[in-house]
Every structure is written in structure tokens, then in C-alpha cells.
Write a structure and sequence with these properties.
By secondary structure, this protein is an alpha+beta fold. The protein has one domain. About 60% of the residues lie in helices and about 15% in strands.
């Protein structure tokens, strides 16, 4: 499934869906936090946590269930996973899922030369 991955957050296995609502929510959240969410072209812990949180909320929307986890849970997940080799692999897998998602590919096509962040890294 394009743009979908599961991660373990605490004791919960949760789905992340990188689709239009997730990207829209992340874009809105980023407007007031661009200096916090990005360091140059790289995601900060806060920015990556927000992106993952938005993908989680999007998955809940698709499943028509209420989110049980908060942003803080995803921030802690990012911090914890950046500390181990295995965790870093999981972060890369999530980032790859995001960059391979059809919504991001469509967004890149539609920008077609418009100025902005060209490549965002974690």
C-alpha cells in the first residue's frame, strides 16, 4: 500500500498513512514552526515527530477511529529511535515510506520548479 507503514509506539502498533490530509496538516503546523521543524533542509526531532503524528491521525481518519496517542508519544518515539542503530533503521524506513508516497510524488510533480524546500532529510 503506497504511503503506509506500521511502527511500534510504546506498547501500541500503529499505522501511518502519508496521504493528502497528513500532508495538509503537516503544512499547516509547519507554517508557524518552520524554524523549529527544520534545520536547513533537515527535519528536526520536532518536525519529524509532527510529520509522523499527522500520518498517524490520517490513518485514524481512514479507519474512522479516534486517535489514542498524542504528539508527545511520537516525539518520544523519534528521540528514542535516534539513539540506536535499529531505531535509526526504522526512522529511515518511515522516511522512505513518506518519500515514496504517491501524495508526495504528486506534490513534487505539481511544484515543477516552484521555489521551496527541494529535498528534506532527517
Amino acid at each position: 500500500m503506497s504511503g503506509y507503514i506500521q511502527i511500534q509506539v510504546g506498547d501500541k502498533l500503529v499505522g501511518l498513512k502519508f496521504a493528502f490530509p497528513a500532508i495538509q496538516w503537516f503544512t499547516e503546523a509547519s507554517k508557524d514552526n518552520i524554524d523549529v521543524y527544520f534545520i536547513g533542509n533537515d527535519f528536526s526531532n520536532e518536525g519529524f515527530a509532527e510529520l509522523v503524528f499527522c500520518a498517524y491521525k490520517n490513518n485514524c481518519l481512514i479507519k474512522k477511529v479516534q486517535p489514542e496517542l498524542a504528539y508527545e508519544n511520537f516525539y518520544n518515539w523519534v528521540e528514542e529511535n535516534r539513539e540506536t542503530a535499529e531505531g535509526k533503521i526504522k526512522i529511515v524506513e518511515v522516511m522512505q515510506c513518506y518519500t515514496d508516497s504517491s501524495i508526495l510524488k504528486d506534490q513534487k510533480k505539481s511544484q515543477n520548479g516552484i521555489a521551496g524546500k527541494e529535498e528534506v532529510k532527517i
